[in-house]
Each structure stands twice: as C-alpha cells, then as structure tokens.
Structures
1.
Amino acid sequence: MLSCVAVPRMRKLLFSLHRYLALIAGVFVAILGVTGSIMAFEPEIDHLFHRKLTYVTPQTKPLSLAEVVGIVTRAFPGEAIRAYNISAFPGMAYQVATTRRAVFVNQYTGEILGTRSGDDSVSRFLGTVHQLHLRLLIHDKSDTGKKIESYAGMAIIFLALSGLYLWWPLKRIRLRSWFDLHNTIGVFSLVVLLILATSGVVIGFDREIEPWLFKITGSGPLPRVPRNSAPHSPDAKPITADQAIEIARAAIPGAAPYVIELPRPNGVYYIRARYPEDLTPGGRSAIVIDQYSGKVLLAQGSRTVPAGARMFILNRAVHTGDVFGMPSKIIASLASLMLVMQVVSGFMTWWKRRR
C-alpha cells in the first residue's frame, strides 16, 4: 500500500511526464487529429466535389460491362482498359479505368458523365492529407514518418490514461479556463481517443504485431494471390469480364463484386467484393480467376479468412470509423478534432502558467 507521501510524489512525477511528453509530441498529435478528422470522410469529400461524376438515378437494369466497354472504347479510341468499378450502390456511377483516365459512365443510360485524370486539386489534397497522417509525407526505406506517427499514437494513449489519473481526485467538469477546457474535453473524449490511438498503433506496428496475433489466434497469414493463369493453348480465348463477375458471385455468395482488374497477357482477373456488412470504402473480400479456364484460383471472403486476419480487418475499420457506418465516422472525426483541442488547451495552460 502506498504511503501518503508516495502518492503526491507519484502524482507530481506523472504530471511532469504528462506535461513534457505533450510538449514534445504535441505537433505530431495535432497532425494526427487534423488529418484524422478529414480522413474519416475521405470518400464523402471526394464525392461531394465530384457530384456530377459520382451520382446517377437508379433504373431497372444496368448495362452489361461489354456494352459499357463499347461506349468507352468508341469515345476514347486507342486507350487500353485496365479496370472497372461497378459500385455496389445502385445510385453511384460506374468507373472505367483506362491507361490515361478514369471514365465515369451512367450504367443505365450509357451516358459518359466525365473523366478524371487523378491529379485534380481534390485528389491531390486528399492524397496529401492521407500521406501526412500515415507518414508525415516522409517516403524513405526505413519508413521514418510512419514510425514517428506510431510513437505519437503511443503518446496519446499515455497522455489519455495519465490525464485520467490526474483528473480523478478532483473530478471537476467546468469551462472557466483553458485548464478546465483541457480536463473536460479529455474526459468526454477519453474512450474514443483510446480506441482510435490503440487501433492506429496496431496498424503502425502491424509487421511486429502480426506474428504474435497469428500465434495467439492459432491462425496463419493470408495465402499469396496468384498472378498468372495456367498454361494454355495459343488459340485459347479469355473469358469476358461479365463472365468473371458471375464466377466471382458464385465463388463467394452474398458478396457483391465492385472492382474488376483486367488481366494482362497470361495474367488473372483480380476482383474485389464486399458483403453488406462491409462498411469500409474497400471491400475485404477477393476472388482471383484464371482468365482462360475461368477457374477460381483464390476465393478469400472477409467472413471466412483466418481469425488473425479478421482481427486486423476489424481493427482497421475501427480506426477509420467505418465499423458502424456514418455514426461511427462522425464520432471518430469529432474525437480527432477534440484531440487537436486537447493540444491547444494544454499548450495554453502551460503557457499561461509559465508566464
């Protein structure tokens, strides 16, 4: 049992650690907060600024991919088609990726809504925010930026828990000073920030954590994705994209294919799919199909992948706020903004006391 003298000493030490760690890591924590609040609505922001390209009025039956391909090929002759995005949502347009652009097509009428080259201002802004959040825009072999942000996530966990310990004896919630604002925001955002920070640290140190997680769950890593079709005769004809979609639907019943990457010579169809409960922008299921025989080389559904991989999938959905759809995205974004307010109010408290 701690003595009366030991408790104040421990509180004083913890207070000093809390204060100086916050001053050291504050800039990186604020970057995580600002960028995280934006990234929670990354797809929605992109769709908002490209409404005319994104949304269509649903009708009875969409055109086949063969018909869509014909429309795009006639409009942009000489551009090879690389992939399709056949959104699982009926009110969103199809996208056809060529060697030069993304073509948006109304899948019901065949109208070409427009194109994007990937370097417009919105794409650049969201890409910069994403990379700033992940690795501080630092791209090197040792992944320095990712490590810094991961340690900043660990700092958030320590600051949240130590802040709770320091606040607990007073249990004061009021808004009369920067110090009060700091305490109040910290208490109300504590649980969500701990969840976001912990899930972010797991993502940041996934290479180190993954082997332990597989060992604990008694599972293994995901199988390697085949990249080449089986040997075939010179006159063999590849299956169509429409046929590949039907094969993918049968391979993982209940999962809707939404991205179809077309095979290169001797390559394979790589198809991503999503179950109704998959609320992340990218579905977590994949089907690989031999382009000549139509044989399924890999069918990996998010419901049946190894337990360790399912935990990583869930962790990422929790971190991005996608786990419960729009409500959890709003909570994650607000909590990220509260993190910024924590940095500002903490700094102002320190500055006023210093003066």
2.
Amino acid sequence: METFRRIIEAIEAEGAAALATVVKTEGSSPRGAGARMVVRPSGRFDGTIGGGELEWRALEDARAALSEGRGPARRGVVALGPDLGQCCGGRAEWRIETFDKRDLAALAPLGEAERAGAFAVVARLDADGRVARALAEEAAQSEQGAWREAHGETTTPVYLFGAGHVGCALALALAPLPFAVRWIDSRDDAFPERAPLNATLAKASDPPTELARAPDGALVVAMTHSHALDLALVAEALSQDRFAYVGMIGSLTKRARLTSQLRAAGLAEARIAKLVCPIGVPGIAGKAPAVIAAAVAAQLLIARGGGT
C-alpha cells in the first residue's frame, strides 16, 4: 500500500486522516511490526493490520483520535488472547497518528518517493509528540530516539502483450498487486480509455523488440490477437533466457504446435521446456476473461516469489 499517498488522498477528500501502525508484537500475531492502515473520518480505510478484533479495536482508536482533531501520536496495547479472545495468543502494540491539511507539505515528498518503489525514512517524536519523518538519505540516523521505517513496495516488472478481453482483465487483476506492468499492443485504439496506475501503455509496431528493454527476471505474458505474434514473442523471450516467467495463453494443442515450430527454429529443448502454456494455476475452471485473469495473477505471484 502507498501509505502517504493514501493519507494525502484522504486529507484532500475529507480534510483529515489517521495512520494506524503496528509498532511491536510479541508471540503470535496476525501481522508483524510495520503493518499499516489509513483511516478516514468517514470510516473508510485502506490497508490492514491483521483483521479481526485487533483491527476493529485499532479502527475505533483511530476514529476516536480523528474526532479529537490533529494531535500527538497515541499508542494502544492488547493481549490477543485475554483481551480479544483471539487464538493467536500474542501481544500487539499500535501507534495512531492524525493528519490534516497542515501536513500536506511534509507528506508530499514522501508520497513522491512511494512512486519510485521501496524507500526508507528516519522518524522521531517532535516536541508536540507527533511523528516527524525525513527521507533516510536526508536525515541523521544517529539522532537519539530516532527510528528507521521501511515504506513503499518493491514491484516486479510484468511485460503484458495483448490488450484484448483477457489482457484487459489481467491488467485489472494485477492493479492492486506488487507488479509494475508494461502493457503492449501493436494495434491502434486497442487499449481502454483508462488503465490501472501501475500499468504503462505502449503501442509498438514490432512488439518483440520491447523485450530488449525488459530487465532480467521480468515476467513475460503473451496473449495477443495473433498466434504468429505469440510465437515470435515467446521465441524471443525464451532465446534470451533471462526471464523468470514466460507464459502464453492457449490450449495444449496450441502449445504442441508452437513447440514444434520453436524446435524447428533451433531453440534448445531446455529453453522450450520453460514455456508456460496453458497459463494460470491449475484447478480453476472457466474461460471467462476474469476467471483466466485470476488464475494467471495467482501464477505470477508464485513466480514473483521464486516458485514454479
């Protein structure tokens, strides 16, 4: 979750926001230190600190803090078993911070940093009991009482070829997930009017050449309108032998046909074997675009984690 951007959006929409952060856990806990959620005065919230009664208590605390207005940070501690009746049995401590329009200038550089991925800040309590943050490279980390926080996400690049029905469904399925999508099609007016924030649209007259700019370890998905183009894409991706995933939409019959063509083109058997086709985790039935997209998104998450 892009924490600071969510805080800024909440302030701009509703005038204030609260940030609930798990700062310490002991024993078993739904989520560890650093889990966050942003709460609005309306009650809407983004993110999670673990769900269940623990999260409900933190939400109540955040709403109470918002009702009192911008003030010092406050802390709450619960024993998950005795206090909440949760089976985890550990302890969790959270911190609630409140923000309003006076904080927008300080939040802006942090929101911009989130756009670039993972980053760190140095935080400390100021004289008013509020948390002051500065980008780590701009702050002295040896200051007494200061602590370091990790923010943003490290995203995995996905090169998605094809803006048809399934391509659109997959782009939407990947929107809330930790992927940076380069979405490529060769056709005029193929893309929808609006695209997810994590997707960069690219019209390419020769889509396989786009792979030259893809970083090592990227995930490549071919689901274009043309079998010939799909073949060219997977042939190029497999020949480079540097991508963590090369998948192509299609049946076992399509795979057999394209495998034969790849073999005839001289591609090594070991590289051909890396082609994922059909794509998507097994056991999910249905050919609707959204169903296929869900299965493929799950498979890409497995690949992102180093699985096969």
3.
Amino acid sequence: MKDKKEQKYNNPFSAVYTGIAELFRKYEPAGELKPDDRLDGKTVLIDGASSGLGYAVALDVARRGAKVIMACRSGIPGKGEEIKAVSGNPDVHMLPVDFTDFNTLRRLTDEIRDHYAPIDILICNSAVVTRNSRQTKAGFDEMFQVNYLSKFYFINLLIREKVFRPKTVPRIVVVSSESHRNPDDFEWDSFGKYIPFGIGKSVEVYGLNKLYLTTFVSELSRRLNPGEQTEYSVLSLCPGPINSNIAREAPKIFHPLMKLVFGIFFRSPAKAAVPVIYLAASPDLQGKKFDYLFLMSRKEIDPKAADPANGKKIWEKSEELLRELLK
C-alpha cells in the first residue's frame, strides 16, 4: 500500500489541496502555443463542449479558423450561437449526445460520418464527478461509463466508421487527470461492476476511472501505430485544477467555500484550455505517436498505465463488456 501521504487524490479535500500546490510548482514547458497555430481547413470534434473547459476549447479552435462540431448533452443551440458570435466563425455546429447512453453515441457517429466527416482532430473532454454512485441504464456506475467506457466505445466507433481524414495523421486528444496515478492497482475483479459508494470515495473512484482511461489511451496509440510510421497522433493531458462546474454535485454547504477557493486559486477554463489547444494545433506535435502533458509540461504517464500488459487487458475487458451490452 502507498503511504497515506502519497495519496494525493483520495478525498475531495486532499485533491483540492494537491491541485493548488501543483499550480505553484515550476515546470519546464513542453512548448508554446502561438497565435499563428491556425486550424483553417480542419474539422474539430469536441465533446462536453457546452460549458467549462470544453466550451473554452471550442471557442479557441473556432477563433483559429476550424470547422467546429460541439457534441453536448445541453446548451443546444445557444452555446454554439454564442461561439459563432464571439469568434466571428459561422462554421460552428452542435450535435446532441449523452455519454450515459451508448445509443446516442452510435447516432452521433452516424451523423458525423454522413454529414460532417472527415474529422481532423477529436478532443475527448466530457467528464463527471458524482457525489455518490449512480447507476446508468446500461447498469454501470455513471463515472465509469462517462469517464471511461463510453470514450473507449466512441473513439473506436469513430475509427471503425472511418470518419477521420484519410491520408493524413489525425489527432486524438484525450483530457485525463494526474489523479490516474493515485490507485495502487487496477481493480480487475470488479471492472465494470456496479458497486455502490458514498461521497467519501467519489474522488478515489474518479482517479481509478482516469487510470483506466490513461491506460486505454496508451494502448490505443500502440494499436493504431504498430510500425515505424505514425498513423494517428494519440495525445493526452491533465489540464490542472479548473474553476469550472465539475464539482457541482458537492454538498451545498461547501459551495460558498469551493467557489471562493476555486475563484482565487484555480485556473479559468480559458487558461486551462491552452495545453489542449497546443496538442490539437501546434506543429510541434506533428508525427508524434503519443504524448502526455501536465499543464504545459511533458510527463511520463504512470507505469501501470504505460504497461502493455495492462493495456491489452483493459482492451479485452472493455470489449467483453460492450459485446455483452450491445449484442
């Protein structure tokens, strides 16, 4: 077991403290996002784009000239109209999706394939932190489905339906979290099983799902790029603590304090979006098979997530869950 001092993200208070502390550390930047890192002529698909980090990313890529597809559960069409007005880019589109519902992911993929493809850049951003366990229609915990399994399904579906631009190197950018380092190990025996939990374990469960996600992303790069040539750039990052609404389900008694702390110490969505846009737009990443950033600093992912044996195992277990669900 890890020493408790090393458990940085095992409850909401330690997670907030760690997030603040990390912002004051000095890191060597991996590169610089420049105003002339344009996206003219490219199509960018962003999920979870109606608020917070996703909205800030959508606005930035629209300003850089991209055709923008915002896949959201809410805010349609108002948020897209806002981005059109603020960015001056009329080529912004909103499509409905709910990451707790696999059927909507299938419909979204069909819509993109038939009317919006080819896609140059996918930015997987949607995430949720629930205050306790919550079972979806498919029988999974909501955090497991939204933060991991639906992403596994959606990304593979987009690849299988060939929505990415051919004869190029598309970029798949996945927003993860440094909390993927916190679990001692994978919980293979209970993988995908709905196990009730309370608020005391919500951040711990979130970290476990981010470990699953980061392991998948690492394995995805290996599978998409088996040879010397880069077929897809698979890129991931932790944007750091953000002053957004991801913690909206925290007990209401803590909301005034959280609003104060987040407002003073956490970064705005616009600032937190910089490493996301860097991975999506910068020529520095051209031809890269895999990369991971924390803020704007390059880091190795946790060894558990980088282990090909774990990547193979999580891929097989995820396919098994989906096969049973979708047959």
